[in-house]
Give the backbone structure.
Amino acid sequence: DTGVSQNPRHKITKRGQNVTFRCDPISEHNRLYWYRQTLGQGPEFLTYFQNEAQLEKSRLLSDRFSAERPKGSFSTLEIQRTEQGDSAMYLCASSLPGQANTGELFFGEGSRLTVL
Amino acid sequence: AQSVAQPEDQVNVAEGNPLTVKCTYSVSGNPYLFWYVQYPNRGLQFLLKYITGDNLVKGSYGFEAEFNKSQTSFHLKKPSALVSDSALYFCAVRDDSSYKLIFGSGTRLLVRP
């Protein structure tokens, strides 16, 4: 399978714990996005990487959230000191370079976080 | 600021009938518009996009969308609905000052046999 891969698919944690999600994009895609989706809502933009550079970050991304893409391939999203309000589906997407491809995203199946 | 509105939470249509899922947008620059579909327990899938050119764009699975600049709308359409089209549909927009897509809240399409 050469699609976008996300792990783990589901994480249950207690409030105050740290969690980390991993995303492996499609290999030739240099752009990588993180979104968050809660029930009944559309995906909300969190952050965007082009290669290893984090070029855009939402104000939704508080100081408890950090994302990295150290070698321009896979990416991690860490949430420190989780809160119940962090419970959501975390979506990763990737896309090809070029203006024409901007917005044509390939999404993974998501990592569902449940904070108890 | 960019925004997208999908005024209908759900659209119901009989199989074989035409369908329309509505979307209106607001951007400060040139709009780039997209439709995505989400089937149960599956990731979001790109359907089609409007960047420039013809106002009627064609996409996957027989869907098309009509860009209307004066009404700031980008409605999704299909001439003949299939039961398998039942899913959650999201409209999204970006402008040329940003890489991020802003998604609407989604419209559930239910096609009854």
